[in-house]
Design goal:
With about 250 residues, this protein is an alpha+beta fold. It is built from 8 helices and 5 strands; from the N terminus they run H-E-E-E-E-H-H-H-H-E-H-H-H.
Length: about 250
């Protein structure tokens, strides 16, 4: 639906402007000069006639600029995005088993979604710039500067009607909304792929808390404890740390 709105508001556009040239000689004036243009905005091919205010002679002029590349690129992306979305919907509903077979369907879907996200960003940005240029090229004040009659102060050149660009502004908004929609959908498509499944299979944590190496072997923390030979007074009456019995007192030896 977002793709339909994007290409419909841009590809179906047609507009126009109206100018007025009031010559010093009123018989040579033209107060309703209509200039119509439409998608794909090849403005250099839009011709119109304007009075020169020098007798009955009229000059043939054309608008400036060719903005068809950005407009057509934007519409092409929107059309293909719509067609792919339609085909993907049919596959999701009626061919779910084929879609998941060998993980090929989700991988293709993921890659295409990433590509369309990138294309929507590029296409919308290019068309936003193109639309800005279209607005400048079709500005009545800018078009009046193309007329030789408007270069003389004795003649009055005025804009009567400016083109309405609301639908084109809407197309740019829908373009960036499509980018957000497709970019956000990358995560949901990625979850269907085998890449996401394999990423969840972490090896079990075999790291266990090991007891201190000093609790085993010769460096036990109790080696010099109460059983030791020299850590308490009167230790001569106890067995020393080397297993030999010490005299209980010096008087007994005498």
């Amino acid at each position: 639906l977002f793709a339909i709105f994007a290409f419909a508001t841009c590809g179906g556009y047609s507009g126009g402007l109206r100018l007025s040239v009031d010559c010093a000689n009123k018989s040579e004036s033209d107060l309703n000069i209509d200039i119509d243009f439409a998608y794909p905005f090849r403005l250099h091919q839009v011709n119109f006639d304007a009075p020169t205010c020098e007798g009955k002679h009229r000059e043939k002029l054309a608008l400036i600029g060719d903005f068809s590349s950005s407009a057509e690129f934007f519409v092409t992306i929107a059309v293909f995005a719509f067609l792919y979305s339609l085909a993907a919907t049919v596959v999701y509903i009626f061919f779910q088993n084929k879609y998941r077979e060998n993980n090929r369907g989700p991988l293709i879907d993921f890659i295409v979604t990433v590509v369309f996200s990138f294309l929507w960003l590029v296409g919308s940005s290019a068309w936003a710039k193109g639309l800005s240029d279209v607005k400048i090229a079709t500005d009545p004040d800018e078009v009046l500067l193309l007329m030789s009659a408007c270069k003389h102060q004795s003649n009055k050149c005025l804009p009567v009607r400016s083109p309405v660009m609301s639908s084109l502004n809407t197309s740019v908004v829908f373009g960036f909304l499509n980018f957000i929609l497709w970019a956000g959908n990358i995560w949901f498509v990625f979850k269907e792929t085998g890449w996401h499944s394999s990423g969840q299979r972490h090896p079990p944590d075999t790291t266990e808390k090991q007891s201190s190496s000093y609790s085993q072997g010769g460096y036990n923390q109790d080696s010099y404890g109460p059983a030791g030979g020299y850590n308490q007074p009167g230790s001569y009456g106890q067995v020393g740390e080397y297993g030999q019995s010490a005299p209980t007192s010096f008087a007994n030896q005498i």
